């Protein structure tokens, strides 16, 4: 049965994960049991995708051979346990300081991280700032858009159709306070979390409350 390209690439990545100093084409060919041509083709594809890179050629007794190493992007293709680690971290914090303090911490963290992005909002009016905030959110994994201002509102609202912390916020709603702090810090205004997917809403909606 022929090995698929995807499986071939994974075999090569597995080998490079084991060999931190890298491996030559000949070493990889021997390790994965494929033809030299097949391995060379898969390496070229992996290199083009940024998962593998070539380093200084290694002398092997004959002609020097390129050494292939796993890039950071390649290492990131392997499974991660961020959700498990995050849950363990927040649960430990909750046990030590209580849910209310964790909630405040997440809010303060959101405000703090927003500071680096403030320059992107300088010189914009409030509506333009909201448009830029939506762009920032989309850059960080949200599917966000502006939502037409409701009657009595001066500013558009922000709607997100996904939650990048979905698994985490399901058990630890304090995490939602990070978004509130982040948006509040960017806009310099209080935020009303009008709708939340974890509380049964079809989306998360945020309303900016302009200073009096």
3D architecture notes:
The protein is an alpha+beta fold and 212 residues long. The chain has 9 helices and 7 strands, in the order H-E-H-H-E-E-H-H-H-H-E-E-H-H-E-E. It is 49% helix and 17% strand. It folds into 2 domains: 71 residues, Orthogonal Bundle (Arc Repressor Mutant, subunit A), CATH 1.10.10.10; 116 residues, Muramoyl-pentapeptide Carboxypeptidase, domain 2 (2-Layer Sandwich), CATH 3.30.1380. The strands form 2 sheets. The chain has a 4-stranded antiparallel sheet, covered by helices on one side. A 3-stranded antiparallel sheet has the order 1-3-2.
Which features would summarize this protein structure in a list?
17% strand, alpha+beta, Arc Repressor Mutant, subunit A, 212 residues, single chain, Muramoyl-pentapeptide Carboxypeptidase, domain 2, 49% helix
As for the number of domains, it is 2
The description of the largest β-sheet is:
4 strands, antiparallel
Instruction: Write down the Rg.
Output: 24 Å
| First-residue to last-residue Cα separation | 71 Å
CATH T-level fold name of the largest domain: Muramoyl-pentapeptide Carboxypeptidase, domain 2
Q: Would you count the extended β strands for me?
A: 7
The CATH architecture designation of the largest domain is 2-Layer Sandwich
Helix content: 40-55%
Q: State the CATH class of the largest domain.
A: Alpha Beta
Average pLDDT works out at 88
| Molecular shape | elongated
Q: In terms of structural class, how would the helical and strand content be classed? A: alpha+beta
Content of β-strand? 15-25%
Side by side, the strands of the main sheet go 4-5-7-6
Q: What is the string of helix and strand elements?
A: HEHHEEHHHHEEHHEE
Give the low-pLDDT segments: none
Number of helices: 9
């Amino acid at each position: 049965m022929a090995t698929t390209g995807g499986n071939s690439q994974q075999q090569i990545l597995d080998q490079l994960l084991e060999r931190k100093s890298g491996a030559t084409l000949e070493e990889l060919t021997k390790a994965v049991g494929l033809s030299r041509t097949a391995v060379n083709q898969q390496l070229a594809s992996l290199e083009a995708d940024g998962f593998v890179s070539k380093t200084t050629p290694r002398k092997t007794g004959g002609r020097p051979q390129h050494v292939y190493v796993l890039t950071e992007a390649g290492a990131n293709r392997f499974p991660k346990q961020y959700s498990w680690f995050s849950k363990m971290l927040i649960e430990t914090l909750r046990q030590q300081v209580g849910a209310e303090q964790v909630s405040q911490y997440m809010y303060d963290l959101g405000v703090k991280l927003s500071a680096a992005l403030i320059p992107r909002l300088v010189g914009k009016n409030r509506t333009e700032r909201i448009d830029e905030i939506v762009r920032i959110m989309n850059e960080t994994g949200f599917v966000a858009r502006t939502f037409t201002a409701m009657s009595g509102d001066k500013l558009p609202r922000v709607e997100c159709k996904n939650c990048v912390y979905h698994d985490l916020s399901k058990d630890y709603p304090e995490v939602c306070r990070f978004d509130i702090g982040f948006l509040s810090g960017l806009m310099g205004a209080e935020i009303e979390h009008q709708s939340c997917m974890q509380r049964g809403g079809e989306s998360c909606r945020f309303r900016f409350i302009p200073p009096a």
